[in-house]
Amino acid sequence: NNRIVGGEDAPDGRWPWQVSLQRFGSHVCGGSLISREWVIVSGMCGVTPLNNRIVGGEDAPDGRWPWQVSLQRFSRIILHPNYDSDSSNNDIALLRLSSAVTFTEHIRPVCLAARNSVFNTGTKSWVTGWGAVKEGVLLPFPQTLQEVEVPVVGNRQCNCLNGVSTITDNMICAGVQAGGKDSCQGDSGGPMVSKQGTKWIQSGIVSFGFGCARPNRPGVYTRVSSYQSWINSHIPSD
């Protein structure tokens, strides 16, 4: 299968927190529902215009599933104050929805990694999105949500592979040495999750990479656990 890159169609209802940020009806970025009123995305996706809308329900871009729900527009954008678009450090933003959503079997929030969480090298992780299936090749019709499993790559090794000083402590990497599995353009802002016991925990936000699924070029994600204090300062616990 040549999806997300190197992934496959996601089973119905498996990733109920996945949302699509859309501009004029077209998918632009992924995101994660973290409460009834808030979505977490990358900083790059958070700087998009307020006339965008957010759609949830997993197969949102195509709109063919009965549980698709339009989350309308978002009413507020909180971009991390230290977001650096050049280095992608602090690549995180919060979007407040214009109205609260009702949780269902197919629309639920994801748990965020706690402060000081550790995701060891090799930790099995899943990345989801409607992005390109390879560099420059869009996800074909019917645009079914894609999923791919990738292991965590330690920051030291990731720095060696992607360039010294490229990776900060606010980032987490994942990928396979041989390449062939990765997030790609259009997946930005979406979640990387790992299963801990019976719970799925979001460890990363799709941030950047050097191409897509290239050998020895793991993808780079915003490390969610580094931002728990910042997130909690803006979002009251439900």
Using brief descriptors, characterize the structure shown.
238 residues, mainly beta, Thrombin, subunit H, six-stranded antiparallel beta barrel, six-stranded antiparallel barrel, 3 helices, 8% helix
Word description of this protein:
It holds the Pfam family Trypsin. Residues 4-236 form the Peptidase S1 domain. Keywords: Disulfide bond, Secreted. This is Si:ch73-182e20.4. It contains three helices and 14 strands. A hairpin with a 2-residue loop joins strand 12 (191-196) and strand 13 (199-208). The chain has two domains: 8-12 and 110-225, Thrombin, subunit H (Beta Barrel), CATH 2.40.10; 18-109 and 227-233, Trypsin-like serine proteases (Thrombin, subunit H), CATH 2.40.10. 8% of the residues lie in helices and 34% in strands. With 238 residues, the protein is mostly beta strands. The protein is globular and about 45 Å long. The strands form two sheets. The chain has a six-stranded antiparallel barrel. Strands 2-3-4-7-6-5 form a six-stranded antiparallel beta barrel.
Helix fraction, binned, reads under 10%
CATH architecture of the largest domain: Beta Barrel
Radius of gyration: 16 Å
Q: Give the strand tally.
A: 14
- At the first level of CATH, the class of the largest domain is Mainly Beta
CATH superfamily of the largest domain: Trypsin-like serine proteases
The residue ranges in which pLDDT falls below 50 over 5 or more consecutive positions are 63-68
Taken from the alpha-carbon principal axes, the silhouette is: globular
**CATH fold-level assignment of the largest domain:** Thrombin, subunit H
Provide the β-strand percentage band.
25-35%
Give the integer mean of the pLDDT values: 87
Structural class: mainly beta
| Series of secondary-structure elements, N-terminal to C-terminal | EEEEHEEEEEEHEEEEH
Distance between the termini: 39 Å
Order of strands across the widest beta sheet?
9-10-11-14-13-12
Q: Describe the sheet with the most strands.
A: 6 strands, antiparallel, barrel
GO molecular function: serine-type endopeptidase activity
InterPro entries: Peptidase_S1_PA (IPR009003), Peptidase_S1_PA_chymotrypsin (IPR043504), Peptidase_S1A (IPR001314), Trypsin_dom (IPR001254), TRYPSIN_SER (IPR033116)
Subcellular location: Secreted
Pfam families: Trypsin
